[in-house]
Amino acid sequence: MPFIGSIALSSDKNLDEVILSDKSSFFVNIILKSNSSESSSIRIPVSRGSAFITGVYNQTKPVIRSQIAFEDITKDLIVHCNDGSKWVLYAWPPIQWVKTDMHTLNPVNIDNTWSGVIQIAKLPSDSNLDQSKMLYDRFCGSWSEGLTLDTDFRNDGLGCYTFRHKQYNAAKPTLFHLLPHQLNSVIADDGIKHEKLSLYTPSNGSTTVLSSITGEYLFAYPLPQLSLLPGATNLDSNEKEWLRAQINQELSKDWLTDIAKEASIYFSGKLVGRIANTLLIANYTLEDFQLTKIATKLLTECLDLILGDQRPHPLIYDTTIGGVISSAAHVTNDPIADFGSSFYNDIHFHAAYPVYAGAVLLSLDALSHDLKEKILDMINSVNSTETTQRFCAYRAFDWYVGHSWARGYLPSADGKDEESTTEAAHFYYSAALFSDYVGASKQSYTSRLQLSLMQESTKCYRLLDDSNEVMPFHWRGNRVGMCFENKRDHGTWFSPNIECIHGIHMLPLSPLTSFIRSPEFISQEFESHLRSIFPTNTGWDAIILTNWAFSDNQRAVKYAKEWIETAPDSSFDPGLSRSWAWLLAVSNIK
């Protein structure tokens, strides 16, 4: 639903000029000015996680407004709105307020020469108002004038990131709302204190308020060990011959024609990812030199095709914002062509498959310099570790919520959103492995840190097992869903079917699957949502069964292996081969 403001800082003047300054992923100064007066303005420093809404007024009469309605304002300046929310007001110099109509609070005996600071803070709906107000009374008058992010990587295998607030009032610590996934990783020191205040968010459970004398908050995670290959498997000669037959069949398909005809970088990328898996099996599992040679040549040609200029909608560099995007919208005049990727929608999903294929070729020292440079541009377009002349830092990743967003520069009433948890993780997995091979250590470490952060946030908000206590009880039973900034939806953009709603959080299946999707979650999800609909007689069936093989149920592994061997071709998604599904299932045999 669209955002409706319960309470807002305003003025009796028409401040119709908006200036944004000091912009970053975590902070912006919003300056509202009057075109008719150079002196009248409101400056609102907006910082992620801030406990106070702060307005710095200059020679203008302040007004507090509501898009819903004010019910009351008490003597101690607690504002009651008719949506049930309660807010506390602070002002320097002090102001006495009066409700002049249901949408407006006006100051008493204040004119247009007033300059000062107003702060607003939300009170919890389920706690003692006096206790919460006393906390705000202690910390009011402090706010952030900037918020930056630093990363650091240690020899002990830990990755760290730090939020650093530029505090306006060094004498008072800042109050900062932490989300549930951050609480297990924040490093508590003498300057950080958990305060007794919590607010409910639209889609991430309840926050916990902390204070920091320095304005710094440090978070640490172990960096995961990553591999292109599934776990060790001891295949007998019959199994290897069966697998070799599957690989021969894979390599006999006319992949170049299929990819050349496919206009979407996403769907053609999935095919390239499938061929990369075929190469992995040929080289590392079967150790078959001839098949490896054929698969290497095929993968190189296909990767060159989708990253070249001969495709229907080739990739281009956007000089307006600075990034590698699809030319689909420029060719079709349709902004949502190829999932809106011309407007940076889903760019990490789309980049993941070519980056993964590049990592596989690099593992054999078989990637050309030209393709390597193109893939490095794709990685930096999505996840540059610093802002450069060509790319912004961390375009898709939100360090505060702990995961990426798929929404690009297209409007949305419910804010940014993301459909697939695992396709997002696949990009950072692929970027880390690719970066290992080219010696880009900072990108490798950063992508691993992001994966650890995603693992924690996904467990809290997006893939919900029976132990989850973060999300509301009535929502947990859905297990999965699309995440928006303003809501959760047990659905997809493309289908209402259960196999699609749940299956989109399984793609693509890889050795990373059990890192993002715990064996316990996989078992519980299968029993609550998938057993009753299987088989669907669609390409989702192999995805569901191969995913089930990663569960903590060894009978599932045996069943999945046998089913994969004999299932009809129509049961397999175009991005998943029978050979790769089988090898993943077998790798989970204990």
Q: What ranges have pLDDT less than 50 throughout 5 or more consecutive residues? A: none
Give the spatial strand order of the biggest sheet. Answer: 2-3-4-5-12-9-8-7
Q: Whole-Å distance between the termini? A: 47 Å
The strand count comes to: 25
Main structural class: alpha+beta
Classify the helix fraction into a percent range. 25-40%
The name of the CATH architecture of the largest domain is Alpha/alpha barrel
**Shape estimate:** elongated
CATH topology of the largest domain: Glycosyltransferase
List keywords for this structure.
8-stranded antiparallel β-sheet; 18 helices; 4-stranded antiparallel β-sheet; glycosidase; Glycosyltransferase; elongated; 590 residues; alpha+beta; Beta-galactosidase, Chain A, domain 5; 3 domains
Describe this structure in words.
Pfam families: Glyco_hydro81C, Glyco_hydro_81. Its EC number is 3.2.1.39. This is glucan endo-1,3-beta-D-glucosidase. It catalyses: Hydrolysis of (1->3)-beta-D-glucosidic linkages in (1->3)-beta-D-glucans. The strands form 7 sheets. The protein has an 8-stranded antiparallel β-sheet with strand order 2-3-4-5-12-9-8-7. A 4-stranded antiparallel β-sheet has the order 1-6-11-10, with no helix packed on it. A 3-stranded antiparallel β-sheet has the order 13-14-18, covered by helices on one side. The model has no long low-confidence stretch (mean pLDDT 95). It starts with 7 loop residues before the first strand and ends with a helix. Helices cover 35% and strands 22% of the residues. The protein has 18 helices and 25 strands. A hairpin with a 4-residue loop joins strand 7 and strand 8. It is α+β, with helices and mostly antiparallel strands. It has 3 domains: 8-143, Golgi alpha-mannosidase II, domain 4 (Beta-galactosidase, Chain A, domain 5); 145-222, no CATH class; 237-586, Glycosyltransferase (Alpha/alpha barrel).
